[in-house]
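Input/output pair, single chain:
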Amino acid sequence: MTEFTWPHGEEVAVSLRFDDGTEQHRTIVAPLLSSYGLNGTFYVTPQGSEEAWRQRAHQWQAVLDAGHEIGNHSFSHPAPAALSGELDSNTYESMTLEQYAADILEAHRRLELAFGSRSWTYCYPCYGTDVGIGAERQSVIPFISRHFSAACIGSEVTRPYNVPGICDLHALMSIHAEFLSGAELIGHVERARQSRRWAIFTFHGIGDGHIPVARDEFEELLRYLSDRRTAVWTAPICAVAEHIQSCRR
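Output:
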């Protein structure tokens, strides 16, 4: 790999990731990003009947048309058993790799029917990358790597910024943004900027909703990103991953 550079000599890349594809994301967050001239990545679960999904997909088309990315967040959104306190059929611990794969491929089928064939990225629900328990536990990352151009996890490290030359594009670290202040969000960008890395923020609720970030704190980050375009490349996950791949060839 030759010496890595961001597309126009920027010092850092930033991606804004929104998990679960909520109504708030579609009607409030996407237009808000557009008002600052920024594009994000929205991870959607195409659940429900085929007809219900077609109606939702029609509403999401405007988000895609505005330049944002729509990604795969699974069909049924599996979760760790610890969240519910029960071991049911939709927990990572109870699933087989084959069941997990079928779930992801059903979501993929529905997304492609709605939005066409394209380069898709994936977001592991609840950051989970394994199914099964103990000796039967298996990583789903190899399966995901065969079907997606990139995929995001979370991270518990203090500097969760992806190194473009060596990062695993199917286990991209991200910053848990919930409850952070604007200054803290910006601080992450500045630290990633020092080493010319890629910072991915994971958001759920904005203003309210599930594990939210206050709207004024979120907009403080958006203003910062909008005002520093020459130094900070803010782009959807798919676009940044494709740039990294092109530099690795």
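The CA atoms of residues 159 and 192 lie 8 Å apart. The longest strand covers residues 12-19.
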